[in-house]
Design brief:
Elements (H helix, E strand, L loop, with lengths): L2 E6 L36 E2 L20 E3 L2 E8 L20 E5 L12 E3 L29 E10 L7 E6 L2 E2 L1 E6 L2 E7 L5 E4 L7 E10 L12 E3 L2 E2 L3 E6 L2 E12 L6 E11 L10 E9 L4 E10 L9 E9 L4 E8 L12 E8 H4 L12 E10 L5 E15 L3 H6 L11 E10 L24 E10 L2
Antiparallel strand pairs: 1-21, 2-11, 3-16, 4-5, 4-7, 6-14, 7-13, 8-12, 8-16, 9-15, 10-11, 10-13, 17-18, 19-20, 20-27, 21-26, 22-23, 22-24, 24-25, 25-26, 25-27
Length: 471
């Protein structure tokens, strides 16, 4: 069974912030004394995203449409030191057709470029912190190949539906330091061979074909800390992905479980960091929202939500509730509430309260103009079952509104006609304390009457119990 919970008090907000900084890179003028970024302990990254806990599991990346893998065959040029590297290879018109091929992810030493080095406590370069290019003894492999550089190029595609979102370039691991360019423009710098690096490339990309260039340095001042008993390799040795996110999203999270003294119960505290890179001013909200889940060992989850406005000028809300996604095998709907057809707070008196049954394809309403649909009001409980009798039941501790779709809101926003709506492998369920009325009490066109709106300046609270039964 797949169960995904998303809560909202639907201003449809999630937040983020990006801080950009200037960077110079490697000094190109020998008359100016400068410290290379890759030999400067004060520089760990330039225009690089902050680290965060893993949100997308590796096993889910292949089925996630918002993750585009760049793994595969790239063009590659190995240079035995920094002075012999191709300086302008990142430019859009630079021809890399005759370059060698290399597999990414992978170490370049294991693909015929340079030699792997094994040492235990001895540095593979002259110890001269933070420099890694000082002259070592002549018997060192590094004597003639002071700091080899790998220049990588590949082409990737950006879909049109990504342009209204934020697009990130994610490196799982690059040893030991790298510069990144997209479409001829420098994006940033990263150091740290065994830690991920991520860059916001939203302002660098275009629809369709894009050029990615990466310049990797075998050694950096970070190599002093990475000196342990191991083989020394280099290159892009972990996955490279494009990650597409909305303009507001969960950037990081922390989960802390605190059991009681006899370990029969536990309080789970979830701390989210929300990034806002949209034009919406999040400080206008001015409301306190508390969400509590109580989970037992019999397949039940009790949800308690409290909304408490702090400011007195909060706009009206389209709805107040939560969203649940379940596997599409649970496509038979039973409910005790108003029906059988869709109804809304200001259009429900003709829909009697009773017990109803429907398959998901008959539950929805197919309008000529694509729009939200299928709401049912005053539901005491509703359930979703499969052909074997297994079911998921939602019981309101007060009457609820709900709707269920074989697609989600993003599909509705993109489609112009019914045939353009995809059939997903999930059912999208909205569980609401209340929703905004549809209006049109003059036969159609009038605004919703005030008593059927949701005032954002009032207190709201709802409780419901989610239960899974496997017969």
């Amino acid at each position: 069974m797949k169960l995904f919970l998303k809560t909202y008090f639907q201003f449809r907000i999630i937040f983020y912030v990006c801080i950009f900084s200037h960077f110079s890179g490697m000094c190109q003028n020998p008359g100016i004394i400068s410290i290379n970024d890759w030999e400067n302990p004060a520089v760990l990254g330039i225009i690089k995203e902050k680290a965060y806990a893993t949100i997308i599991l590796p096993s889910e990346k292949v089925i996630n449409s918002m993750v585009i893998s760049l793994n595969g065959i790239w063009k590659f040029k190995w240079s035995f030191d920094t002075l012999s590297r191709p300086i302008h290879f990142f430019e859009n018109d630079y021809n890399v057709k005759d370059w060698a091929n290399i597999i990414v992810p992978g170490n370049w030493q294991l693909q015929g470029f340079g030699l792997p080095v094994y040492t235990n406590i001895t540095y593979p370069f002259k110890k001269d912190q933070p420099s890694v290019t000082s002259e070592p003894p002549k018997y060192y492999y590094r004597y003639a190949k002071r700091n080899p550089v790998g220049s990588y190029c590949t082409i990737f595609q950006v879909p049109a539906n990504a342009m209204d979102k934020h697009v990130f370039l994610h490196f799982g691991g690059v040893e030991s330091a790298m510069y990144v360019w997209v479409n001829g423009k420098k994006v940033g710098f990263s150091k740290g061979a065994m830690t991920p690096a991520e860059f916001d490339i939203s302002s660098f990309i275009r629809i369709g074909e894009n050029k990615l260039a990466v310049e990797v340095y075998r050694w950096s001042d970070g190599s002093y800390l990475e000196d342990i008993d191991m083989w020394r390799f280099s290159g892009i040795h972990r996955d490279v992905d494009i990650v597409i996110r909305p303009k507001t999203y969960i950037q990081d999270y922390q989960i802390l479980a605190e059991p009681n003294s006899d370990f029969t119960k536990a309080d789970v505290h979830i701390k989210l960091k929300i990034e806002n890179r949209s034009s919406f001013d999040v400080h206008q909200l001015g409301a306190k929202y508390i969400l509590k889940y109580t989970i037992n060992g019999t397949g039940k989850i009790q949800v308690e939500a409290d909304y408490n406005p702090i400011n007195a000028d909060i706009q009206k809300m389209p709805k107040f509730g939560m969203r649940v996604e379940i596997d599409n095998i649970f496509n038979k709907i039973n409910w005790y509430g108003r029906g059988p057809m869709e109804n809304y707070p200001d259009r429900k008196t003709g829909s009697l309260i009773g017990l109803y049954v429907s398959k998901i394809e008959n539950f929805i309403s197919n309008y000529v103009t694509i729009q939200g649909n299928a709401n049912r009001c005053d539901a005491r409980w509703f359930s979703f079952s499969d052909e074997y009798g297994k079911y998921i039941k939602i019981t309101g501790l007060q009457p609820l509104c709900f709707h269920a779709w074989p697609y989600d809101e993003s599909d509705l926003e993109k489609a112009n006609h019914q045939y353009e709506l995809p059939k997903r492998d999930f059912i999208d369920i909205n569980i609401d304390l209340n929703i905004h009325g549809v209006g049109g009490n003059d036969s159609w066109g009038a605004k919703t009457m005030e008593k059927y709106t949701i005032d954002g300046n009032l207190l709201y609270k709802y409780d419901c119990i989610l239960k899974y039964v496997a017969i």
